[in-house]
Amino acid sequence: MTDTFAWGILLALVIYTLFLIGLATRGSHKHVRGEAFLHGGRRFGFSHVFILVTVMWASSIFVVELETGFLSGISAIWFGLSVILMSILVAAFILPPFQRVGYVTNSRLIGQRFGKAAQRFSAAVIALTFPIFAMSNVLAAAEFLHAMLGWNLAVTLVISTIAMLLYVGQNGMWSLVYTQCVNLLMLTVGIIVATIYFLRIPASHLHTVPVHGFYSIGGVGIGTIAVWVIMNILNTVSAQAEMQAIAAVENPKRGQAAVYLSAVVLIAFTIIPVWLGMKTRELLPQAAKGLSAFPHALIQIAPPWVVALVALGVWAAALSWCAPLLFSGASSFGADILGSFFRHKGEDSGSVRKMVDIRTLTRYGLIVQGILVVLVALVRPDELAWWRVFGQTIRSAAIFAPTIAFFIWPLATRRAVLTSMVTGVISSILWNAATGFSATNFLLAVNPMWIGLGVSTLVLVFVTVFEIGIHELRRSEHQGKAWLLYAAAILAFLMMAASWQQAPSLRGALGCTGIVLLFIGFLTGTTKQDPSSSARIA
Which residue in 472, 476, 453 sits closest to 404, CA to CA? Predict the structure, then answer.
């Protein structure tokens, strides 16, 4: 590739990024002051939600499926389908109760019932983990741009982070709406153009990949597929970035409809990247990684203008995944950590000072998030898999149980919730430490995410019962639902026992599923003793 063409790609990236920054200012007429900076004044329509949800998951799926398709073949499609399932579940079951309580962030939700300490702890976990999740697409862009321009990781990280901060910090959620629309268009164009040229590769240039199961729909194994599905189902209550986008809608039913249509569109974004990854492997069978092999394959088969378009698409994928995640993390850090310290107790909720504080503090949060992305990536740049494990682990341990308890178990105490969050995080980290913080090798083949999530749910129940006294509990009117959940839990445990030797990777997923079902069943089936009945018994 000539220096002239490399400078041409660089110029295109600069112009595109400056265009996004300018476009972000269009949100100013929406008066995005105060909490409207975080939820757009809850005036989003069908198209706004459709764009935000589609491009966020499309960009994530594109990167993961391209790499996984390259390594494992057609069965990588199950990851994308599990993400689509999670998105549908969020819209169908999570959105209605969340919107009824005026959802802004998970950490704010937890703080409403369980106090400032729980709010700050959960916000700190969210603020730490979201840059980790955002990093995956930035690293994908770094791989591509390194092949095109010779940029190293640090340069790509810094430039993409600064670009994202400049346009997201303009007007919050409304900035995301306008810029994500362009990012979705550019990502789609890049994928379509790449697909056209990969279809033109002569069959004689392609090699059969000698990897077992590469061309089988179940090639990665039932254990891996089950883990993907269970993990994403459990993530429904923790998907803060998507929840913020959907909860900002004015009409909840239109928001749900937008997500359902998005799920249909995302099927294409699931299938095509897997196919591109497979074709890249067939063209370059000696390559080790799909993300680095893909641009080299493209250079071989496509003219320079196609390479430039796809480069813009990959850049759009990095920004469109990074921006909502870092904005969501900044919402928790700025509004729920910094805001809890800086607002005065007697301040009126509608005062100008409070509204300015939220917007300003969220921008501070964005800066912190950007710094974390760079630092996290530079600490272990070759350990993206480990960072994902770490991020999923501590987020699930800290967020899942308190969020469920908020909605279905009024008995949960503040001390129990905070204790469950802390012990869940610590136990998962210690479990990972037992095998030297490996990304793939775990004690008893159980991912630390399952340990942290299981411990946090059990601790929440036991500490609450200890505090209020078991004699204060009675059966609720939802015993039928509770027994169904108990039966499902027993089934999960039996499946875990049956597959203990044959599918070790399923141990943690099935065991944790059983514990979660018991947890939800217990919460559903118990309530507090009526004081009058207690007096009669006495």
Answer: 453
Cα separation of 195 and 272, whole Å?
8
State how far the Cα of 325 lies from the Cα of 323, in Å rounded to an integer.
6
How far apart are alpha carbons 267 and 150 in whole angstroms?
33
Contact call for residues 318 and 141 (beta carbons, < 8 A): yes
Buried b (16+ CB within 10 A) or exposed e, 405-423: bbbebebbbebbbbbbbbb
pLDDT 10s digits, 328-372: 999 999 989 988 776 534 444 554 444 446 788 888 898 998 888
pLDDT digits (tens, 9 = 90+) for 282-322: 999 999 888 889 999 999 999 989 999 999 999 999 889 98
**Local confidence band at 43 (pLDDT 50, 70, 90 cut-offs):** confident
Strand pairing partners for 527? 474
What pLDDT, on a 0 to 100 scale, did the predictor assign at position 355?
44
DSSP-derived 3-state class of residue 480: helix
Q: How many helices (H) and strands (E) does the chain have?
A: 21, 2
Q: Cα 52 to chain center, whole Å?
A: 14
Q: What is the chain's length?
A: 538
From CA 15, how far away is CA 20, in angstroms rounded?
9
Report, in angstroms and rounded to the nearest whole number, the Rg of the chain calculated over CA atoms. 24
**Selection from 180, 236, 213, 187 nearest residue 66 by Cα:** 187
